[in-house]
Design a protein that fits this description.
alpha/beta, seven-stranded parallel beta sheet, 15 helices, 42% helix, globular
Length: 384
C-alpha cells in the first residue's frame, strides 16, 4: 500500500526546541508516511533521515525585516508553499512555530487542498506581548489559527493561552517526545569537564543565554551558595554574564562550557539541575534533566515546569519552596526562594534520593515511542 504523502514545515533545523522535536519525530513518521521536510531557512543542525526530502521555501531571509515586511511576504510565500504541496500530492501539511503556521494556513486560503495541521510551541500572549510585530502576530493568530484542520499545543499552558486569550477552540495537547534511553546512555559518557572542586555540590543549567532564561538570577544565587555551577549554552548575553562572575567574585565557582553536542554527559556528573526561566512553552531541558537522574529546581513560570514536575497539588511548602512530586518549584525571578531551594536540596539527602528515584519514572512519560504514536494517530485522523 502506497504511503500517504505529508509535509513537516518549520523555520529551520537549527539547534532549537521545535527543531529537536521534529528530528525525533521524523524517523517514526517515515515508517507510516512519505515525508517531505520544508524549511524557511537552509539551516540544518540535526540529522535528517535519508528517505526525507528537504526543500527550502525561501532563501531570501524572509525571517528578517519588520513586522510589516513579514506580513506582506505571507501571500507570496503562501502561493509558493501551495505549489509545493500541489506538485508533490501532499495530503497533510503539518507546520511548527508561528511563521510556518501562518504560511501554512494562508496557503489554504489560496487554494492548498492539503489538510492543515499546526503546532503552537510557546505562549503567544507572552511571546508577542509588545511592539508592532507583536500586534501583527496576535491578530494573525486570532484570524488564521481557527482555519486549521487541527490545532495542537505542546503544553497545557500554551493550550490554555490559545483558548482563553485568542478564542481558539479544540486545541489538542501533544507533548514533546524524547529518546529517553539515548539520553540516559549519553549521560554515562566520560566528560572533558574542566577541573572543579568535587568536594562541593555541583549545580548545572542548560539554556540559550538571553533575558528570558534569566541566568543572571542563578549567578546572583551563587554569590550566596557554597557550591559549583556548570553553565551550558551560548547566546547574546554570554559576554555580559561572564563579566558578572568578576563583579560577583564567583569566578572559582562557575564554569561556562558554551554549546555542547552532548550536554547530558555533564548532567550525569552533576548533583542538581537549575532552571530560572521567566516564561516557557515546554522546557525540554527539564525532561532531559529528569532522564539524567537529576533532582530539579525550576521556576514556576508559564508554562511547562509545573505540569512536568507537579502533577497533583503540592502538600509541602518550605520557606516558599514548593515540593512537587518530581521536583522543586520556586516563584519566577525570586532570588531568596531560589537560594532556599538550593540550600534545601544540598542539605536534605533523603529529598535528593526520592527525587532521583522519581526522575526516571517521570521522564519515561515522555518517551518517543509513546508520544510519536499520538502524533501519527492525529495525522491519520484528519486523513479519514
Amino acid at each position: 500500500m502506497e504511503k500517504k504523502k505529508i509535509i513537516i514545515f518549520s523555520i529551520s533545523m537549527g539547534a532549537g526546541g521545535a527543531e529537536r522535536v521534529i528530528s525525533v519525530l521524523l524517523p517514526y513518521l517515515t515508517k507510516t508516511f512519505d515525508v517531505t521536510l520544508v524549511l524557511l531557512a537552509n539551516k540544518i543542525h540535526y540529522k535528517i533521515p535519508n528517505n526525507v526530502e528537504v526543500k527550502i521555501l525561501d532563501n531570501k531571509n524572509s525571517l528578517d525585516g519588520s513586522g510589516i515586511y513579514k506580513l506582506l511576504k505571507l501571500i507570496p510565500l503562501g502561493l509558493k508553499y501551495k505549489k509545493i504541496c500541489k506538485e508533490n500530492n501532499i495530503c497533510v501539511s503539518f507546520s511548527f512555530l508561528n511563521r510556518p503556521n501562518f504560511i501554512n494556513i494562508v496557503s489554504k486560503l489560496l487554494g492548498n487542498e492539503s489538510k492543515i495541521l499546526i503546532s503552537e510551541r510557546s505562549m503567544p500572549s507572552v511571546q508577542h506581548k509588545s511592539g508592532i510585530q507583536g500586534i501583527i502576530n496576535r491578530q494573525l493568530i486570532k484570524l488564521l489559527y481557527p482555519l486549521a484542520d487541527l490545532k495542537m499545543s505542546n503544553s497545557k499552558g500554551n493550550q490554555h493561552d490559545l483558548q482563553q486569550n485568542f478564542g481558539i477552540k479544540d486545541v489538542r495537547l501533544l507533548r514533546n517526545p524524547f529518546h529517553i534511553k539515548e539520553i540516559q546512555s549519553l549521560s554515562l559518557e566520560g566528560s572533558d569537564l574542566p577541573a572543579i572542586n568535587r568536594s562541593k555540590f555541583v549545580f548545572v543549567t542548560i539554556g540559550r543565554m538571553d533575558e528570558g532564561k534569566n541566568h543572571i538570577l542563578i549567578l546572583k544565587a551563587m554569590k550566596k551558595i557554597d557550591a559549583h555551577l556548570i553553565l551550558i549554552g551560548d547566546g547574546d548575553l554570554r559576554f555580559f554574564l561572564e563579566n558578572k562572575l568578576i563583579e560577583y567574585d564567583i569566578q572559582d565557582r562557575v564554569t561556562f562550557l558554551g554549546y555542547s553536542t552532548n550536554p547530558y554527559k555533564y548532567l550525569g556528573k552533576s548533583d542538581c539541575f537549575l532552571f530560572a526561566s521567566l516564561h516557557e512553552g515546554f522546557p525540554n531541558v527539564l525532561v532531559e534533566a529528569l532522564a539524567c537522574n537529576l533532582p530539579v529546581i525550576s521556576s514556576d513560570c508559564m508554562s511547562g515546569p509545573r505540569e512536568i514536575l507537579c502533577l497533583g497539588e503540592s502538600k509541602i511548602n518550605i520557606d516558599g519552596v514548593e515540593i512537587g512530586e518530581y521536583g522543586l518549584l520556586t516563584p519566577p525571578d525570586n532570588l531568596d526562594i531560589l537560594v532556599s531551594a538550593m540550600n534545601l536540596i544540598m542539605k536534605d539527602t533523603q529529598l535528593r534520593k526520592r527525587l532521583k528515584y522519581k526522575s526516571i519514572i517521570r521522564a519515561n512519560d515522555f518517551d518517543s515511542n509513546y508520544i510519536s504514536d499520538q502524533y501519527i494517530n492525529n495525522i491519520k485522523e484528519v486523513l479519514k
